[in-house]
Amino acid sequence: MKAFIREFKEFIAKGNVMSMAVGIIVGSAFTAIVTSLNQDIITPLLGLILGQIDFTSLSITVGNASIAYGNFIQAVITFLITALTLFLILKAFNRFTAKKKEAEEEKTEEPAPVPEDIQLLTEIRDLLKKE
Length: 131
Hints:
Layout: H1 2-13, H2 15-50, E1 60-62, E2 65-67, H3 69-108, H4 116-130
Antiparallel strand pairs: 1-2
Helix pairs in contact: 2-3
C-alpha cells in the first residue's frame, strides 16, 4: 500500500498533471467566454437576421408522449454556432502564434559574429591564395 501511495504522489507531483489541471481551469474560464460570446452577441445578431426563430416549441405528440424535436434542433443550432465561434477564435490564435514563431525564427537565423582571430586567419588565407 505504501508503494501505491508513493507512486500516486509521484504521479500527482509530475508537471504533466499540474499542466493538465491548469489547462482544465483555463478551459473552464474560456468556456464561459465562448458561451457569453455565443449567447450575448452572436445568437441575438442571428435572431435579428433570421427574425427571432425559436424551434423549442416544435413537438409531436404520439399517444401520451410528447417528442420535443424542436429542442434538439435548437441544441444543434447552438452547437454549430458555438463550434464556429470557437473555430474562429482558435484560427485567430493560431495565426498569431504562427507570426510570433516566424518572428522568433528570424531572430535566431541571424549569423553569429565571426570572432576576430577567425577573421584574421581568413584574411591571411586569402592573401596567401593571391600570391
